[in-house]
């Protein structure tokens, strides 16, 4: 089996199980543990996984977020539900900002239902899907391309955002704890903050499984955002904390409306 094929199978196992065991992988592929170590090193360097003792994981850590190629294959039902709820905040004729991420990519495609729109984004998946669509004025933000986030980031992105204004920005986050939203990458944080600063209203999108977790950088205070959408109710203690802080959390229904 070629190394590239074996590494893709490791990625597939991570999508299914979130973690992989070093010994199990060596047995499964009939190779040495050192070979698996090298595979995991390659995938970690590419930003696909995080090595842990005895194996690897795609669970986010304070300084790690899994590769876009992993995240786009996870939690599709939750993403669809949150995107559908977020869509209710959009009216035809608006100027909308959408950030990087697989969750945002789902919302980006749904925005076709609300055209005509002006859409500002650094999300390469949205750019590819919406380019040339009638009724969409697409403003694609430049910058340094990040394969890990499938987005354009950096000074060029931030400078462009400082000269634009939107009616609403949709911002996703991999971690929320207390009244703060976090992210593990400083370039992503700066782009998201620039979008928040350039929009009249901001809506935060967060999977309920990410609530109660932190990451390296504080991105925003939840009280400064206009709407927060998640896919399922978090623990009662979290809901009480939000209520005491005056933060409204909208729970998107994952049930198919009939």
Describe the structure.
With 258 residues, the chain is α/β, with parallel strands linked by helices. The protein contains ten helices and 15 strands. Helix 5 packs across helix 6. It is globular. Residues 3-58 form the HTH deoR-type domain. GO terms for molecular function: DNA binding. InterPro entries: Carb_Metab_HTH_regulators, DeoR-like_C, DeoR_HTH, NagB/RpiA_transferase-like, Tscrpt_reg_HTH_DeoR_CS, WH-like_DNA-bd_sf, WH_DNA-bd_sf.
Secondary structure tally, helices: 10
**Which structural class should the secondary elements be placed in?**
alpha/beta
Number of strands: 15
Radius of gyration equals 19 Å
* Overall form: globular
Strands in their spatial order, largest beta sheet: 6-5-4-9-12-14-15
How do the helices and strands follow one another from N- to C-terminus?
Answer: HEHHEEHHEHEHEEEHEEEHEEEHE
N→C terminal distance = 47 Å
Which range does the strand content fall in? 15-25%
Uncertain spans, ≥5 residues at pLDDT below 50? none
- Percentage of helical residues? 25-40%
Largest sheet, if any?
A: 7 strands, parallel
Organism: Rhizobium brockwellii
Keywords: DNA-binding, Repressor, Transcription, Transcription regulation
Pfam families: DeoRC, HTH_DeoR
Protein name: DeoR/GlpR family DNA-binding transcription regulator
Kindly list the characteristics that best describe this protein.
258 residues, alpha/beta, three-stranded antiparallel sheet, 10 helices
């Amino acid at each position: 089996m070629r190394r590239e094929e074996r590494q893709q199978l490791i990625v597939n196992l991570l999508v299914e199980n979130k973690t992989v065991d070093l010994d199990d992988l060596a047995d499964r592929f009939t190779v040495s543990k050192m070979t698996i170590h090298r595979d995991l090193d390659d995938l970690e360097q590419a930003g696909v996984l995080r090595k842990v003792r005895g194996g690897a994981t795609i669970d986010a850590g304070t300084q790690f977020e899994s590769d876009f190629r992993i995240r786009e294959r996870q939690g599709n039902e939750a993403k669809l539900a949150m995107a559908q709820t977020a869509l209710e905040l959009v009216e035809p004729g608006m100027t909308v900002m959408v950030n990087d991420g697989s969750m945002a990519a789902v919302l980006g495609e749904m925005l076709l239902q609300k055209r005509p729109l002006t859409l500002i984004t650094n999300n390469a998946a949205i750019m590819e899907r919406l380019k040339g669509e009638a009724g969409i004025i697409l403003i694609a933000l430049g910058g340094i391309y990040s394969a890990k986030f499938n987005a354009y980031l950096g000074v060029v992105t931030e400078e462009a955002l400082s000269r634009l204004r939107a009616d609403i920005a949709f911002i996703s986050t991999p971690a929320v704890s207390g009244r703060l939203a976090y992210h593990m990458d400083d370039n992503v944080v700066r782009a998201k903050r620039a979008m928040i600063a350039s929009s009249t209203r901001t809506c935060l999108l967060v999977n309920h499984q990410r609530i109660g977790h932190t990451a390296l950088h504080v991105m925003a205070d939840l009280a400064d955002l206009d709407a927060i959408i998640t896919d399922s109710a978090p623990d009662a203690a979290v809901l009480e904390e939000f209520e005491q802080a005056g933060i409204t959390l909208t729970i998107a229904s994952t049930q198919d409306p009939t």
